[in-house]
Amino acid sequence: MTEPDLHLKKFQKELSAGTVSLGLLAVLAQADEPMYGYLIAKQLERVGEGVLSGKQSALYPVLRNLESAGLLGSFVEPSMSGPPRRYYRITEAGRHTLRDWAAAWRATRDSVDSVLKGISP
Amino acid sequence: MNTVRMATTVPEYLDQLRAALAGADPAMIQDAQYDAEEYLRSELAAQPGRSEAEVIASVAGSYGAPEEVAEIYRDTEVTVNRALRPPLAPKRNSVLGQFFGVIVDPRTYGALFYMLLSLATGIVYFTVVTTGVSLSLGLMILIIGIPLLVLFLGLVRVLSLLEGRIVEVLLGERMPRRPLYTQQGKGWLERIKEMFTDGRTWTAMLYFLLMMPLGILYFTIAVTGLATSLSLMAAPIAVWTGLADVQMTQNEFNVLAITGPGTDLTTSLGMWSLPVALVGGFLLFFVTLHVAKGIGKLHGLLAKHLLVRNPVV
Question: Quick check: A82 and B37 CB within 8 A?
């Protein structure tokens, strides 16, 4: 792996740390019914560009963390195809957090965009 | 990338993941395998036309190859630990600080509560195991003993997961959050056979039997330590505030007792020994907290060794 590649990888890792949580909360906030890990991963894959399209195994530990932080609720149901699935849905606290995070994200995105304005792609 | 050949079946993929995580916390390996299996099985079900090998090859791109997944879980574990662990009590350097600092450490109270709780859980576990063993062995002459034994072994696994949650919450030792769910492809006969050959089923049973004497011991230590130290502290205060009578020894020695009708408090301690009792009770209280914290730590290790299956075959 070359030097620029390494830098890019490190940058993506740092970017993804918070944005993946934001993405997961957003997907679950828009879902009509509880979703399990695989479905959430596929949903993010469909819309995902950049860090959100990273390795999907990284989503599972984040889901668990969001749950233990009280932002998601979950229950287990048996499935035909494999081990019992854990279904997640967003909690009231989660929706609240999502609103705050979304505002913080938009502010950050706008200011980063304006700083980047003069730079040729 | 390495010499390991590409996995072609789900169990093979899980084996490689397990190998890649070798040396990591067994509880984390169990969680990682559970997540991976959920994803792989769902992917297989979503693409009915393709073979298992094809699907697994494509998954290396989306979910990650076993080595990548292992790296991700190792990374997250560090972050999770940092984020979720209750703030560690500030490190104190002085001997006095170390001795008295135990009172602000949340682990102390978790351990103390666990010691009190273990009397109840110990009795339940012991009853379940002895009933299960004697019932299924006794009925073994009739054919019904065999399904009973299998059911009972399943119950032991559920109980070890439950005890694991209690241990993690109260004692802070990382325990599995998901059952070890392996090898869906195997027939049910083979899976039942695995229950018998898996050493953890038997060590878990040993743990549940041990919980009875240990539970009684822990409960006794906690109650004795707390009752003695608290009453040693309460007696002098009660005397000095006029609530208790001093030097009232009738048949036995009491640090602090309710005697006679009503709520007359008495103590057998003499006036001169009251300050000694106060200081002694105060020190004993902290010693009890230290003992509780130490027992909590040791018991967490014991639970981990006997309850968590070591997935490295």
Answer: yes
Domain A3-116, what architecture?
Orthogonal Bundle (1.10)
In angstroms, the separation between the Cα of residue A119 and the nearest Cα of chain B is 32
Contact across the interface for B62 and A41, Cβ inside 8 Å:
yes
DSSP classification of residue B256: S
Each domain of chain A, given as residue ranges in start order, spans: 3-116
Per the CB < 8 A criterion, the answer to whether B163 and B307 are in contact is yes
Contact state of B73 with A61 under an 8 Å Cβ cutoff: yes
Residues of B with CB under 8 A from a CB of A: 31-32, 34-46, 62-64, 68-69, 72-73, 76-77, 79-80, 83-84, 177-179, 181, 184
A78/B contact by beta carbon, under 8 A? no
- How is chain A split among helix, strand and coil, in percent rounded to 5? 65, 10, 20
Are the C-beta atoms of residues B72 and A57 closer than 8 Å to each other? yes
Question: How do the pLDDT tens digits run along chain B, 313 residues long?
Answer: 444 567 778 888 888 888 888 777 777 787 888 888 888 888 888 877 888 888 888 877 778 888 888 888 887 766 655 555 555 555 666 777 777 777 777 788 888 899 999 999 999 999 999 998 898 888 888 888 888 888 888 888 888 888 888 888 788 777 766 665 555 556 677 777 777 777 778 888 899 999 999 999 999 999 999 988 988 888 888 777 777 776 666 666 777 776 666 667 777 777 777 888 888 888 999 899 889 988 988 898 888 888 876 543 3
